[in-house]
Amino acid sequence: MRQWRLIDDSPAVGASNMAVDEAILQSVTERRAPPTLRLYAWNPPCLSLGYGQKTADVDYARAASLGWDVVRRPTGGRAILHTDELTYSLALPADDDLSVGTVIDSYRRISAALVAGLSYLGVQPQADRRAERTVVVGAVCFDTTSHYEITVAGRKLVGSAQLRRQGGILQHGSIPLTGDLARICNALAYPDESTRDAAKIALRARAITLSDALSTTITYENVARAIIQGFAETFAIDFTPEMLTPAEQSRAAHLAAERYTNPTWTHHR
What we know:
Number of strands: 12
Strand order of the largest sheet: 10-11-6-2-1-12
CATH architecture: 2-Layer Sandwich
Number of helices: 8
Oligomer: single chain
Strand content: 15-25%
């Protein structure tokens, strides 16, 4: 039986959420904490950019007018609006059975647990290897499905991204529960409103929320329980619910102040 730590966290601002994920990764890679699954939400809504994404993709004035924060993730990928969702993050040492091999290998393994958990809720998710390489041209994560990302009826349900450092990996992802996924377009930069409207229509056709997939409203708490069960049963995990350690809290506060709220980090591309 694998022994993992479970952190079922309170909603937090975007900078804090990214800082906590990175602080946990450091603890896990330094063997000061076991593999850790963290579940959390965001307050206020936050637009997150992938590590290498262009700052010019965002209309910062529009985001501010909507009351949305903007943060840059340590992981790759494209923009996600974090609201009305459950976010998972998983920190593993590099020599863990789930980590070894390529990024695609680890995506495949982790997706198996997510698929199992979502299946307990009554959906029929799929996570397949893409037949062809996807060329990403848009700014939105949920516009495009990568290898082993999770779909329902051909529409993307979970957007995930991964960071690999010497000693460990961090994978986190967004599971939208409800709402209009096209809201994200209201804070992105488009040449004109007709282009923005077209982007919204395309996104709604390519992505789906969990409530829409189930044709009923689903709560954060029910989804959290299902995801935990999916990981526990797929990988024979014995979870120990815990809080962040004092060292992790200190490290996260430092990272939030020095990196994730720092314009130099946010606008480095």
